[in-house]
Design brief:
CATH architecture of one domain: 3-Layer(aba) Sandwich
Bound molecules: nicotinamide-adenine-dinucleotide, thymidine-5'-diphosphate
CATH topology of one domain: Rossmann fold
Order of helices and strands: EHEEHEHHHEHEEHEEEHEEHEHHHH
CATH superfamily of one domain: NAD(P)-binding Rossmann-like Domain
Number of helices: 13
Strand order of the largest sheet: 3-2-1-4-5-6-11
Shape: globular
Strand content: 15-25%
Number of strands: 13
Amino acid sequence: MTILVTGGAGFIGSNFVIDWLAHHDEAVVNLDLLTYAGNVDNLASLEGDARHHFVRGDIGDSALVARLLAEHGVRAVLNFAAESHVDRSIEGPGAFIQTNIVGTFNLLEAVRGYWSGLDDEARAAFRFLHVSTDEVYGSLSSDAPAFDEQHRYEPNSPYSASKAASDHLVRAYHHTYGLPVLTTNCSNNYGPYHFPEKLIPLVIHNALAGKPLPIYGDGQQIRDWLYVTDHCSAIRRVLAAGKLGETYNVGGCNEKANIDVVRTLCAILDELRPRADGASYATQMSFVKDRPGHDRRYAIDAGKLERELGWRPAETFETGIRKTVAWYLDNQQWVHNITSGHYREWVERQYAQ
Ligand code: NAD
Ligand code: TYD
């Protein structure tokens, strides 16, 4: 049997593919467009592994998806592919509409065509798992209970609105066509292979480079952080045992204000890689203009996933963040390849027509 993972060269997708192959012998077809966020270096540890088959392509290319599904006899599709950075969605929302909404629609159409042609047994066993975000629920006031699956959708950024639209399409394909879908809505992830323009890797990178650590607004915005391999284990669990048509919130019960995350990173770096002048990295913290429409607080109630499927995260924020800093210190070349432009140049050469 084979699964099709989309976006498997991105941050969470690549962690998922590595995690999957460490737990299963089932092969993975990895379909990724290699946008600025996709990086085959993330998959270097799988080189020579016959169970991993990488294809550069677009989830919006229905003919390609249909061919891959049929050729590999795929029994489940896991959709990680997306434009994912809120700041970029404010700068230029078009790509978000294209990939997250139109792309997901085209993917669903290809999957529906394939699935409806399967025999009864294979049709019943088939799964389409859609990876989504807690940001579709909007922003919480400081004393409001965490988001559960009943919380109404109130997306506030072009990114979260496009993810919300994709969630609705996935839901509709279940209700209308009976496609066996599952949706996960997860809080902010962190860990290895996180693209260095997101808060945690950006702060580590800038700290080591002696640059300012930009904190938007007053730094009191709260995110609920989950170590990426805990997200991967939640997805494996939902795929294996989730109820069709249901959504599952995934989170770590780790609500932290941004400024505290930055302070924690500085303290760990002070310990593991002290600055030559003996000063703390915290002296590089710099308050900058706030993000337009910045959501104040996200928090996830993952109680349903724990009660119904027995999932719990393995990492606390303290253990996960320490592992993350250590990973970045050990993998400076990975960061350098991205930030220096080497990686983009390689993609252009490798995939030149
Ligand atoms: P990412 O930006 O690091 O990776 C996205 C990947 O998708 C990249 O490899 C990119 O090349 C690929 N891609 C983009 N457009 C494509 C297309 N049209 N066809 C095929 N591939 C395409 O994102 P991420 O942080 O790994 O997020 C993965 C998924 O998880 C997204 O759907 C995101 O909404 C969701 N999510 C992310 C977080 C988080 O904290 N990062 C939290 C919850 C949910
Ligand atoms: P980010 O990593 O972009 O994730 P998201 O917007 O999806 O939550 O940002 C996490 C939080 O950190 C968010 O509240 C914005 C804030 N932030 C900064 O304060 N400075 C920065 O340079 C970045 C990139 C983010």
